[in-house]
Amino acid sequence: MVNSLDRPPAAANSELLKRPEAVIFIFLAALFVLWDTYLDLLDEVGSTTLSTRQLAQRLGTTAKILRLRKRQPNFSDWTSSLDPDGISWVYSSGGLYTPKI
């Protein structure tokens, strides 16, 4: 019988990955971390709403141009090209603009 202390660390790790419960645990841990990161990003983006004036200032344009273009089909692409962070914006009722997710 070989003592686990006699094995090199690489061999111990490779045997650990042969156990289904270890692989499932690693997968679930990675999934949890990714999901938590995704939720944090959604909270950060979802809480950002801007008025016409605020978005015009962010995009370096005027409120009048925003009002003229907000209903055009390529509005999100247009805002993305002007936004300093490349964020696409959409117009929602109530006169507010939100990031496109």
Instruction: Give the tally of β-strands.
Output: 2
What portion of residues is helical? 55-70%
Indicate the mean pLDDT: 85
Task: Count structural domains.
Answer: 2
Class per helix and strand makeup: mainly alpha
Low-confidence stretches: none
Spatial strand sequence of the major β-sheet: 1-2
Can you summarize the main beta sheet? 2 strands, antiparallel
Distance between the termini: 57 Å
Radius of gyration: 25 Å
Order of helices and strands: HHHHHEE
Shape, per Cα inertia axes: rod-shaped
Strand content: 5-15%
The total count of helices amounts to 5
Any descriptors?
101 residues; mainly alpha; 2 domains; two-stranded antiparallel sheet; 5 helices
Write the topology of this structure.
Blueprint: H1 9-16, H2 20-46, H3 52-59, H4 63-69, H5 75-82, E1 89-92, E2 96-99
Antiparallel strand pairs: 1-2
What's the gist of this structure?
By secondary structure, the protein is mainly alpha-helical.
